[in-house]
Amino acid sequence: MTQHISPERIQEIKAARQVLKTYKYSPAAVDKGYTNKTLYINISDNTIAEKEITEEIKDKFIGGKGFGLWYLWNAVNKDTKWNDPENEIVISPGPIGGITQYPGAGKSLVVSLSPTTDSVVDSNVGGHFGPLLKFSGWDVLELQGKSEEEIIIYINGNEGAISIEKAPLEELNSHILAEELTALYADDEEDKRNISVVSSGAAAEHAMIGLLNFSFYDKRRGGQRLKQAGRGGIGTVFRHKKVKAIVIKYKGVRGDSNHPADLKKIQELGVKLHKEIHDYDDIQTRKRQVGTANLVEIMNDYDLLPVNNFKYGYNPETWRISSDILKTYVTQNVPDGCWYGCSLACAKACDNFELKTGPYKGHKVLVDGAEYETVAGVGSCCGIFDMDYVFECNFYCDTYGLDTISWGTTVAFLMECYENDIINKDITGGLELVFGNRDAAMELLHQVAKGEGFGKYAGLGVKKLKKRFVAEYGADKDFLEAIGMECKGMEYSQYMSKESLAQQGGYALTNKGPQHDEAWVIFTDMVNNLIPTFEDKAEALHYFPMFRTWFGLQGLCKLPWNDIEPADNKQTDEPAKVPEHVQNYVELYNSVTGKNIDKEELIRQSERVYNFQRVFALKLGFGTREFDKPPYRSLGPATKEEYFSRQDRYDQQLKEKMGIDPEGKSVEEKIALHRQYREQQFEELTDAVYKRRGWTKSGVPTIEHLQALGMDYPEVIELVKPYQ
Amino acid sequence: MIQLNNRRETYDEGMTVSSLIKKKRYTHPMLIVRVNGQFIEEEMYAETPINDGDDVKIIHPIAGG
Amino acid sequence: MKLLEKMEERCIQCNACESVCSKAYFKTDDRTKSRIVINDDASATRDWTINVCNQCGECIAACSEEAIYRNKQGVVMIDAKKCVGCYVCVGFCPTLSMRTHDDELVPFKCVACGLCAKECPTEAIYIESK
Fold this sequence. Notes:
Chain A contains 29 helices and 17 strands. By secondary structure, chain A is an alpha+beta fold. The longest helix of chain A has 27 residues. Helix content of chain B is 11%, strand content 28%. Chain B has a five-stranded mixed beta sheet with strand order 2-1-5-3-4, with no helix packed on it. Chain B is globular, with a radius of gyration of 11 Å. Chain C has four helices and six strands, in the order βαββαββααβ. In chain C, the strands form three sheets. In chain C, strands 1-6 form a two-stranded antiparallel ribbon. The longest helix of chain C has 11 residues. The N and C termini of chain C lie close together (5 Å). Chains in contact: A-B, A-C. At the A-B interface, helix 9, helix 20 and helix 22 of A face strand 5 of B.
């Protein structure tokens, strides 16, 4: 089991604490999903204040990511950088967040200026913090400033008490820190379930790709589970502010804690979905058995699993990291939800995993996961087909506070640089960073946590590493731009988009960067061939990003939308949309808030926030067409080995799509022809998508569109005006 | 030749829905199959023949990931 | 294991069991609050007459809060203090015998107390220990 913290250690930690500020409040009652209050904390001067949330702000921004964007917009100006004290970390669960009846309703959305993209970023995370924050009286937690000393912020939602305390002795790494703080604040074993901790880890201090862990107490396993707000380096911001943790305690979660307008309707919808999951999950995506890892072998079968830094989509060794192998690690058949009532239960975990390396070598720990993105990112993308490694790396990334997706894609990039002699052992300090070298990759991770050796740079992320390698080692810039799998400064999540034009847009034509939570349209496009024209693709790249943005406004998880489907979904007009579940969401929203939206208004709610986020990026100097340009490898074969791996397909495409006879042409010529064609296709796609989204050719929302959405705030209009 | 998802696909002697799914390595668990517009239940995949010239749709109803 | 057994062919749909049950646990004569359900819909074709928990315990595994447990007699019980009202147990009951009511946040189910069996005029329901 996890390390058990001794009572003496807890006493020692407590004795070293020094209270810097206390604040008493009367917790606002939750009414129809909202408390209508924001908690503002500034840790530069230890200000704690309450703000009212108006009906106007609720109508326009809904909650979750919408609220986060609104508060951050008001906190920063065009010159604010991620490491300025003015930057905020805003956490908000959304109005539906916290209901216990419908699966996937415990998410928090975190918004900040990102160290990797330098623009605004949002990240979606499970764990209990968001709902407990709301039941403690707050729709939003807005954290600003920078502390001079290590601090912890504690919110007691039952007593209405907040404190900021100097916290010198607590461990940094999350698996120990979360356990220490849960033990410290719980009255007894039974009380541990009422606590959630937000924390990061040692590596977030030496990397730009730091993450936040949100904990919850797993009663069956007797340990803290950690869910990750991984994307965009918000953990790096957190550690830069010298916050060790934010702890919340609230006792008394019940089926009606969110005080919805129509609890009965929510219960009906919940039972209907629970029953669907009970009846069909075993024959559909097996989330309850293996979590998201069922995708590993499926992506491999469809040539979509990133292998060796996205060169290839398939490897015969993939079975070693497939869900069948994963199943032998995770504890089976327990309800592994990350919030109450999630019967889809994808949050798998492995108990008593014995670590082979690093500072906790020999410890038996609880590993949360591994999820698909992690298996693919640190596994196949780095050419490592070893499940022991995947679990060990997953554990250390989480506890050190590093995003497994960005870390995997970054290490894969370093490996390709190493194999191309752009970096060598002199630079890596002796690490032989070739594809498949798990020992070197693991050592590099530990070096990042210590801030030593090559680890001082490895966590910078792909974008900053590219610049560094060009400047310091004279690397070929064009080559690095082609193979470095980042867009806007965010590393790609783990799907191969080369053969799906629509997904190339699904990744690059996004607000925060190439994270598939906006659109995943590979099957619809590449396999089903249902969206053949640019207009079809543009429609998909309008609808799905808007639909999926909505989860982030509400505090919802995307998985129960389409990782489980009703029996008759196959017979519907648009099965990829899962119409019955869309209707469930419309009714859930109405039942919580007492409002009366339909599925069209659902999309408009997202459009308001989506367009606002686009303009926010513009305010910070981004948000135009040039920043939507993807690395060539996401569009097509960048190297000879990639071309050869799919030569028949690529030669045939030359003939059929470009009308060019490949006979007698060198591979370099063929690569160049493909590139010219594919980049042109991407430009045409971009035009079509911008048009559908109501944007100009430069990728900026038109004034008319903003007016139609009711998002024509003066500052917004000022920003977009020069681009009309 | 048959049409599979509006693209040309080689016809093999004795082809069934099952054999086509296998050949294409369509291992996703949630497929929607129509042959000449006719919806085919999963239990019938092995017994449903595909004839030369047929229009086959094998749809993956997934916009997930 | 103690449970309420049934012989459906004996049931005359007098609904006495439902009345006893709701009075015992909810202090009201309201069959929508009974833990045993009698299907007396004369219009529909009836493939069941009595629906009541068979104490199989699948709901125990489905509950993340460990709010459902088996007592010493083998009866599956709900600890209302631990229940967060998520209704996973309702959706995961193989016989659809976990009951809910608008007035109640916590689901309810047959605990094999036998009060209804005593009232049943035809001995269609009876307590058995296995």
